[in-house]
Amino acid sequence: MKWNQVSVLTSSEAIDAISNIMMEAGANGVAIEDALDLENFKSDPYGELLDIETIDHIREGAEVTAYFPETIFLPEILPTIKHKIAELTSFGLDIGKNELSLSEVVESDWATAWKKYYHPVMISRYLTIVPDWQEYTPHSEDEHIITLDPGMAFGTGTHPTTRLTLQALEVVLRGGETVLDVGTGSGVLSIASKYLGAKEVYAYDLDEVAVQAAQENMALNPVAQDVHVAANNLLVGIDTQADVIVANILADIIIELVPDAYRNLKDTGSFIISGIIEDKVDIVLEAVYAAGFEVDQTFKQKDWFAFILNKKIEE
Ligand SMILES: C[S@@+](CC[C@H](N)C(=O)[O-])C[C@H]1O[C@@H](n2cnc3c(N)ncnc32)[C@H](O)[C@@H]1O
């Protein structure tokens, strides 16, 4: 699997803010090199192990490197990232050189580096996502704990698109439904669906790494043991009558999915779509109206939109 690496040369004081911006934009993790730490390291007896050449460019300040799965379309999110970093100066933060560079990397040892930035996320009164390696005590009996180790798959729960989708699932699920989770990533939406009362859940992803991560996460959550996880391209070749179809994928891929979602959805069912950046709302809505859907509810967080759609049934 390939990853897109986005690095920003900045100042030490902007590290946390820039890391947050990257995680909110969908990074699976960030790695940080801070000249202040390196100074300490160089005076460390083991400092000789460090290849000083490689850190020459961060002799001053710091470098935040974020890793995005190749399924995230960077041209769509980079303008927002740049804008948000530039905005930090208005909060009085020194953003240093603010030089941004891109490259492609292959899966490597960064895989676990991001874990220290991943903490429990309270999605709502009913759903909290807790990293597998953290202790957490629920605040009430209503609070369901989704235990996750997303590994290299998308779906830590921290991304606005995942949050919006979870909120939409809370609205439509009443208990006893059949759910199709298209582009399951870490499996977070399937696990939440089971907690919210779904009877049968089918989770699909094109990416084998995600399929494996989702299977492992089902095993971490007893409620989701019977979720059927499989590799599949969207709903191609699937023939199920579902009460709920949920897809948190890029806008252009959602448009491809729409006809098969219509075919697999009961007349009374709900189709939840998320992952839609503001600029793409119009083309997605055009495609869903053309297929025979209407919008029931709209959800928005920052620049991201999600919709609950119903079939438009003529009286
Ligand atoms: C934005 S992530 C969403 C993950 C998770 N469902 C969530 O809400 O956090 C989108 C997922 O869709 C998967 N995906 C992309 N194209 C796909 C396709 N054609 N068929 C199935 N899955 C696909 C990606 O591998 C990725 O895991």
From TrEMBL:
It comes from the Bacteria. Its EC number is 2.1.1.-. Belongs to the methyltransferase superfamily. PrmA family. GO terms for biological process: methylation. The keyword Hydrolase does not apply. S-adenosyl-L-methionine binds at residues 162, 183, 205, 248. It is an enzyme of class 2 (transferase). One of its GO terms (cellular component) is ribosome. This is Ribosomal protein L11 methyltransferase. Methylates ribosomal protein L11. Keywords: Cytoplasm, Methyltransferase, Ribonucleoprotein, Ribosomal protein, S-adenosyl-L-methionine, Transferase.
